[in-house]
Amino acid sequence: MESHVVRKRGRFSLSVFSCACRANFLVAVLLFAGGSHGWDTEGFTRIFNGENLSGWNVNCVDKDRDKVHWFSVTDSMIEIKTEKEHRYMWLTYTAEEFTDFHFKCRFQAYEDLRGNSGIQFRSRYDTITSGGWMNGPQADIHPRGPWRTGSLYDETENDRGWLAGGDRSSSPEGLEFFYSTDTPAWNEYEIIASGTRVKTVLNGMVIQDVDLPSLNNQNHQEKNVGMRGHFSLQVHSGSAVHISFKDVFVRSLSTATGPDTRQETSLTLDTKCASMPGPAFSVLGKRLPEKSILLPGALEIHRPTRGLKTIVVR
Questions:
Q1: By three-state DSSP, how is residue 171 classified?
Q2: What is the DSSP string of 128-166?
Q3: Nearest CA to 102 among 148, 175, 36, 196?
């Protein structure tokens, strides 16, 4: 059955189907996120202060560094307005990392510039790959084809591709998407992650609710993404984008106390790296033998293969 995106004008125009989905969403979130009701932000932390980009950082390749002014704060909202010629760019919340969480924000899309965007989570910026790349999963925002919003895409190098959704048939019937000229003019977006289970919710409707074991595969573990990392607002390359964000909140669902259940991480050198002169690995400036075990809590490993590459282990 073909799915249809519904543009609603006026606050009382919700369909019966949409209302039912909202009711189901409330029940699901009570079970999954521990008692959140709709857009209630009790127990959440505001990570955008509405005044400036304190705690946030623009990530991009060097040749786009002169375009960071495309990310600004206007009228208590993050406004991103780009031209067409650029590589991928990200506005990353670098003040804190998250594992299990409930994220929510409001975003506004504009019909004049409908380039692709999205919210990356459990992600990390790699300055080596492609001259600069944000590895990690993403919840898509696609104003040109709103039915794709809420789909999940993996931006991790060597694992890039759709995790869930990405085609019109996967979009639930009755999905609502608003532009800046609509009433309401803002979309409400939520991402809930617990272990490898990820849920996206758009305007009260569950879009995806899936288990994604690939987020914890070897490639993601080596890059320390998929299960832990930063939030980042993405701007797709080669597209003119105009999108705004406000009311950006997150609540950690991770247990703050209790025993550390993380496993030891074993690093074995490959022959290419082992043949290089000098120490093959260093941790915080200290040399390691050719084969080493890093205990939980180790921070950075620098591997001098094809330039300096950083792997973060926690």
A1: coil
A2: SGGGSEEESEEEEE-TTSGGGTT-EEE-STTS-EEEE--
A3: 36
Q: Which amino acid is at 257?
A: T
Rounded to whole angstroms, how far apart are CA atoms 176 and 6? 5
Quote the tokens at residue 72.
């600004």
Locate the DSSP E strands across 142-279. Answer: 152-154, 161-164, 175-176, 187-194, 197-202, 205-211, 229-235, 241-252, 265-268
Q: Which residues pair with 142 in a beta bridge?
A: none
- List, run by run, the mean pLDDT of 10-residue segments along the chain (314 residues): 46 34 40 48 96 97 96 98 95 97 98 92 92 96 95 97 93 94 97 98 97 98 97 94 97 62 37 34 40 36 36 37
SS3 (DSSP) at 142: coil
Closest CA to 230 of 255, 257, 204, 248: 248
Record the tokens describing residue 144, joined without a space.
């040109």
